[in-house]
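REVIEWER CHECKLIST
Item 1: Sequence provided? yes
Item 2: Single chain? yes
Item 3: Sequence as submitted:
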Amino acid sequence: MNLPQAFINQIQPILGAETADFLQALQTESPVSIRLNDKVQSAMTDTVKWCETGFYLPERPLFTADPLFHAGAYYVQEASSMFVEQAVKQHINEPVRMLDLCAAPGGKSTHLSSLLPAGSLLVSNEIIRSRAYILAENLIKWGNANVVVTNNEPKDFSGLQSFFDAVLVDAPCSGEGMFRKDEGAIAEWSPDNVRKCAERQRDILTAVWSALKTDGILIYSTCTYNRAENEENVQWIIRELGAELLQIRIDEAWGITASDFGYRFYPHKTRGEGFFLSVLRKTESPHCGLDPVSFRHCGLDPQTPASFCHCGLDPQTHRKQGKKGIAGHTSTALSNQTRNDELKNQLKNPNNWTISIDGNKISALPKDRVEDIDYLRKRLNIMHAGIPLAEQKGKDFIPEAALALSKNIDLLQVNTFEADLPTALRFLQREAIETPDAPRGYLLIMYQGLPLGWVKNLGNRANNLYPNEWRIRMRLT
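Item 4: Structure as written out by the authors:
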């Protein structure tokens, strides 16, 4: 690995006598780590110390050829970035609205969706549309319903005044921490790019700051080593935006380096790549242009009225808009209410869900977060929310892949077929499969007890309904 001399010159004042050990570690292979979903249990023992569900693998297998990977049994994630778990567990202990602003491909969002206290809502955003589709796919496969996926620019969140209790900004950075895994990151590195990244990170933070409520939590992270994108930006947040630094308790055995303004991961001290994380609490007071009565008329969480100020509407319009939006998205009923109930009854605890209809798409939303989701629909570009249940085509209701993969599906309410490995792989390649002795109609294909997706069994053949954009394209034989 040929590192730029300017990078070495930059890291020496930070690491001092440890610089040689650090540079030597960059010449070694990266550890392979995964984070298990609570869909499964494992006897693995080589744990990631700062993450209860994180484990190291002795070597990198071909994940594409493992149906359990496609079933969302685990997520392949760099171990250092799993440290987000400590920030959440130590500083978020009640239901929240949380934003993961730069979320693709979904490692931290899948993690957050499992970490946040019950009743929370996670908004996972990605600005690049193609990456937002990947983000949605990974969150669907992870199976939690407390998630909304959006495709917006950071500035689009500025109108959601004080809506979020917590925000994660895993900022686009110069990628120095990925040098060991991606030599392309070395080729793209330069001192000028570091400067531009630091400036862009400040722009992103400024754009989203108003969406975080006073006393809300900001988790700021990068996968880089330099101080400009890390400590200096944290100091800038404190000074210019208004925040106080929070501490995270760490075990000395973890090998994490506590700096003045955050926590650093170095490959010569921890089993992981380069990573930086800081936790802050917003101290700036928001300004609200509407009286409290106007907020209450929104019909949305009167205990946190500042969540809905600065929408640009006068109080009377604000009241009408709030009522209309809720009715428009949550009270629409199918002509066949029985079918509505049948769809909802495929879920565990069906009374906890509200049916939402968008054109011919039918979804279930967590009942206690319907109003929040409706509010977001009017302001953001939502790509996924809750549990998509079915698509109506004529008189037929075709089950959605998201229903199959949801942790909330009631397997006793659907017909299932347990596939062996070759059959599971053919299904994931969207090829025709045989389902001998299975009942006709929609079948949920399972592998080792975990759902993969649907087929429609016609008796003599089974139509494969696995999403075309998710199919395995690699030749496996």
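Item 5: Key structural point noted by reviewer: Residues 414-470 form a domain with the Archaeosine Trna-guanine Transglycosylase; Chain: A, domain 4 fold (CATH 2.30.130.10).
Item 6: Recommendation: ____
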